[in-house]
Amino acid sequence: MSVLRVWICALVAGSAGAGAQTAPPAAAPAKAAVCAACHGPGGRSTQPVYPILAGQTARYLTLQLRDYQAGRRSDPQMTPMATGLTREEIAELADYFSKEKAPVTGFNSDPEKARLGKLKADETLCTMCHLGGFAGQNEIPRVGGQQYDYIVKQLADFKARRRTNDAGSMTSVSNTLSDQDIANLANYLAGL
Fold first, then answer.
1. Is the separation of the CB atoms in 28 and 100 below 8 Å?
2. 31-57 exposure pattern, b = at least 16 Cβ within 10 A, e = fewer
3. What is the pLDDT of residues 156-184, one digit of tens each?
4. Could you check whether 32-99 and 111-190 share the same CATH topology?
5. Residue 166 phi/psi, 5° resolution?
6. d(CA 155, CA 114)
7. How many alpha carbons lie under 13 Å from residue 146 in its C-beta half-sphere?
8. CATH domain 111-190 topology
9. CATH 1.50.10.10 is the classification of domain 32-99
10. Nearest 5°: CA angle at 113, between 175 and 40?
11. What is the 3-state secondary structure (H, E, C) of the chain?
């Protein structure tokens, strides 16, 4: 290819993108640095017990932080973190994490447990609330691709009524699950 042809291709490629305006990435709120200690940079947790916040709905994140503040949800680490947040800080954090891209965890699902987990999810109509792909909506969390250990803990907490900030839906569903059902569901969901 001649030098002139390379120069023309470069010029055309450069001018094609010149008219397209891309917004710069949103700056992380100051409080996001505190969140990163457990939830990872941008809410992309690599720790199995801490949920991935990236890509979660802003509405869900807002409600959970408010529930921690009001005592409707309790955790020895999260409750003190949420307690001092202002409404504006909660809104900034929820908006920021909701716009971050959720990572692929690389969880290696056991194929048979994942198959049984999908059957149980279908049986209990999980996608009626969590939607296809378990992407979540509004105040319903995205659980597809979430950390395996976190899913197991939350389902067990709903079942044992240690977590009840769900208007009864998850408490009712989880009450029908065996420990093996919970492990199978977590295998399925974490592998999405």
1. no
2. bbeebbeebbebbbbeebebbbbbbbb
3. 999 999 999 998 999 999 999 999 999 99
4. yes
5. -130, 10
6. 16
7. 24
8. Cytochrome Bc1 Complex; Chain D, domain 2 (1.10.760)
9. no
10. 80
11. CCHHHHHHHHHHHHHHHHCCCCCCCCCCCCCHHHHHHHHCHHHCCCCCCCCCCCCCCHHHHHHHHHHHHHCCCCCCCHHHHHHCCCHHHHHHHHHHHHHCCCCCCCCCCCHHHHHHHHHHHHHCCCHHHHCHHHCCECCECCCCCCCHHHHHHHHHHHHCCCCCCCCCHHHHHHCCCCHHHHHHHHHHHHCC
The residue whose two tokens read 């009626």 is: 128
Q: Which amino acid is at 31?
A: K
> Where do we find the tokens 């009712």?
172
Residues 6 or more apart whose Cβ sits within 8 Å of residue 21: none
Return the residue matching tokens 């640095």: 33
Are residues 142 and 44 in contact, defined by beta-carbon separation less than 8 angstroms?
no
Phi/psi zone of residue 55: left (φ > 0), alpha (ψ -120 to 50 degrees), beta?
A: left
pLDDT in tens, 72-82: 999 999 999 99
